[in-house]
Specification:
Elements: H1 2-9, H2 11-28, H3 30-33, H4 65-101, H5 103-117, H6 121-132, H7 136-162, H8 166-173, H9 178-214, H10 226-233, H11 242-269
Helix pairs in contact: 2-4, 2-11, 4-5, 4-7, 4-9, 4-11, 5-7, 6-7, 7-9, 8-9, 9-10, 9-11, 10-11
């Protein structure tokens, strides 16, 4: 009853949680949902308009767009979650170390963060991805390299506040080991805010990964990925607009759902909202 009451009281969170779970379900059960093989080329059906056999049409190689959009959910979602986890872990860890230990370590981490922030994020990510080579793993590394700074600075600022608390000073006086102080006292006090930040960034990170793929620095053919599908379809925009409409709508829907879910989680968990 309490759980049902919670979901009823927080309708926005409930609605977007259900939609997000549906998207995750599409990603997990893509082989069962997709009507055709997303990599199967049927040249006789090249650039076929939406019809009964191909509800979203076909691309230049005669591959079913509906199947490719469905499988694209899996590619985009998995890589986005990997990216968010990487920047969350790396940024939070570096921020905690900088805030707690201070001194030279703090200076080095924060100066590197300042250097990364001084460049336009996407431009720097393109440069890094260009040096590493075009694939999804390198795209994740490139975006993570320019996105961890936000988490590091946030974690550092919160650690500086928590470190002045009486119970931290008492733990230090009692001889508690440093790793126990960080694990038992520091992390629990900042984790909620960091999780809220990560949840709110899912949609943004997905959009940035799609952007790199669209520019040719992310997924490579024949991977069914929305940004790459947009790139492949732009040359046929006048002749076959469905090549861009389908993945474009998919990106918009998923980004909006996860952005709204992140906002809802922030409203529920962020202590500053109390």
């Amino acid at each position: 009853m309490k759980r049902a009451k919670f979901f009823i009281e927080h309708k926005q969170f409930t609605i977007f949680l259900i939609l997000a779970l549906m998207i995750v379900g599409v990603a997990i059960f893509a082989p069962q949902i997709a009507p055709k093989d997303p990599l199967e080329a049927v040249m006789l059906d090249s650039l076929k308009a939406p019809c009964a056999e191909y509800p979203l049409g076909t691309d230049k190689l005669g591959r079913d767009m509906l199947s490719r959009v469905i499988y694209g959910t899996r590619t985009s979602l998995v890589m986005t979650m990997c990216l968010v986890i990487v920047i969350f872990v790396v940024g939070t860890l570096l921020g905690v170390l900088a805030g707690y230990f201070g001194g030279i370590l703090d200076e080095v981490i924060m100066r590197v963060a300042d250097m990364m922030i001084s460049f336009p994020g996407l431009v720097l990510a393109i440069a890094i991805a260009g040096m590493l080579g075009p694939n999804m793993v390198n795209a994740v590394i490139a975006i993570a390299a320019v996105s961890w700074t936000k988490y590091a600075r946030l974690a550092r600022s919160m650690v500086l506040k928590v470190k002045k608390s009486m119970y931290i000073e008492a733990a230090i006086v009692n001889g508690t080991k440093t790793w126990k102080i960080l694990w038992r006292h520091i992390l629990p006090n900042i984790l909620t805010t960091m999780i809220v930040t990560a949840a709110a960034d899912i949609g943004t990170m997905m959009l940035e990964l799609a952007s790199l793929s669209f520019l040719g620095f992310g997924a490579t053919a024949p991977t069914p990925e929305w940004g790459l599908m947009l790139n492949e379809g732009r040359t046929y925009m006048a002749k076959a607009p469905w090549l861009m409409i389908s993945p474009g709508i998919a990106i918009v829907i998923v980004v909006v759902v996860f952005n709204m879910l992140g906002d809802s989680i922030r409203d529920l968990l962020d202590p500053r909202q109390e």
